[in-house]
Amino acid sequence: MSANPSDVQTLIHISGFSPEDEKHLRHLGQHLVPRLPELTDRFYGRLLADERTRPHVEGRVEQLKKTHIAWLTELFSGDYGEPFMARQRRIGEVHVAAGIPPLFVAASMSFLRGAFPEEIEIAARAVGDPIGICTGVVLRLLDLCQYLIDSAYEAERMKRLTAATGMSLVLLENLITLRPLRN
Question: Which residue range or ranges hold the Globin-sensor domain (predicted)?
């Protein structure tokens, strides 16, 4: 089970992510992509400095940095169709399989949401796009990525609940969405 396509479309609609956003992301990418290695170095510096995240990255930092830079670069490709979304879901599946707690994904996205605005301001000025709009575009895309990545954690939890209780996935979903009885 992965993110419900209808839910993904609702997120995209409500967030306002649009073809115009895709254009802004491509423009920003011209100036942001060269800065991504430095941003990635700062990010992995934080991971290595934290006693809880360090064991998940030690001994693999250089390879993980390459993967992280490739992912960040893709964010500015301008192509956000189903293949892009499938890759985000796959990232979540890899994190689940590696035993990376969802807290770490949320913290990573929080780092990016905090680090990107300054970089976006510089890039937006360089391409002549409005800073506020460009910042919003990147934040909306990060939200979409986090939702898709997090869906792998939800799917794994549902799988474990199904195995532990013997209940079908449909029954569990129905129980979760059950409305409380009114008194």
Answer: 6-157
